[in-house]
């Protein structure tokens, strides 16, 4: 297997743009890739930057209903919005060229996933992807097409028998779970803020998969205001055990960074340092359980200057096996770009100064702790279905 990493990037991907004032600002991607370039992460041996072509209708329709794809095309070509299909809502306003822009994101995720499967790259990164809310027949939550689900479907069609999807976005990965709800070949693991306090209102521990795939969905629903220690404890208490039990051939992960304390639309209190630690954990597990086959996607993250570029530059660095020192000062050329656009400097360093320490689950369960109760609910619901002991594994 090649040790290379393929990173999807092209300025054409900035065309996924819902307009001024929308949280899903393409500038967050532009600043991320400019930072990665300034840090030297897109150059050197083993890193290949690849463009993305729009996925064909046939590829999109491996997950999405033909009528929905037709509706997206019609709306993006000047036709009427279709609120019944989520098109033309406040979350997903219609814009010119929407179909092509969203299909290009899918094309990038499918291409790097297949490159990883074929051994042309060890890891693949598409930070423009991670559109995990899109449903087979509707747009939802800033997501028009579900690139993660289409990429996983492409892996299955190419011969993969077990694919694990790991989602650490603050929002539940509901669209991917819906697509593979009754498919035992796909394990979906989502660690997110509870649906009782955050969109989309799903992802409760009792959601464990359909009749033909019981145990294929694992959901950790965390209380609002969970910080680094609880967030990392929850991930560590669930993810390694279920991935080892499932033994996937490929790990596809979604690294939305909207769990950060500064994110404007969520209620978790996580640092960039914890986000970086979670990326390291997922990367290590991909090497342990899937021979290194790892596809890392972006997702949510709406602190455009102060969080997203640093968090996602760490994703690229980790995938390239060239981790960035958290204490490193952000390059002046990147700061100049931020000043030109925002009239202020961005964060000084690649760290928030947090130690991202947590108490391992093996240290004991605390019934008075809200996070521990959430974790225990997940382990009790999902672990037995995967042949695991919820008290000890």
TrEMBL record:
The reply to whether Transmembrane helix figures as a keyword in the UniProt entry is no
Q: Domain of life here?
A: Bacteria
Q: Which residues form the Histone deacetylase domain?
A: 22-317
Give yes or no: UniProt keyword Plastid: no
Pfam families, alphabetized: Hist_deacetyl
Q: In which pathway does it act?
A: Ketone degradation; acetoin degradation
Which controlled-vocabulary keywords does the entry list? Acetoin catabolism
Q: Which InterPro entries match?
A: AcuC, HDACs, His_deacetylse_dom, His_deacetylse_dom_sf, Ureohydrolase_dom_sf
- Entry similarity comment: Belongs to the histone deacetylase family.
Q: What is this protein called?
A: Acetoin utilization protein AcuC
Protein species of origin:
Cellulomonas chengniuliangii
Q: What taxonomic lineage is listed for the species of origin?
A: Bacteria, Bacillati, Actinomycetota, Actinomycetes, Micrococcales
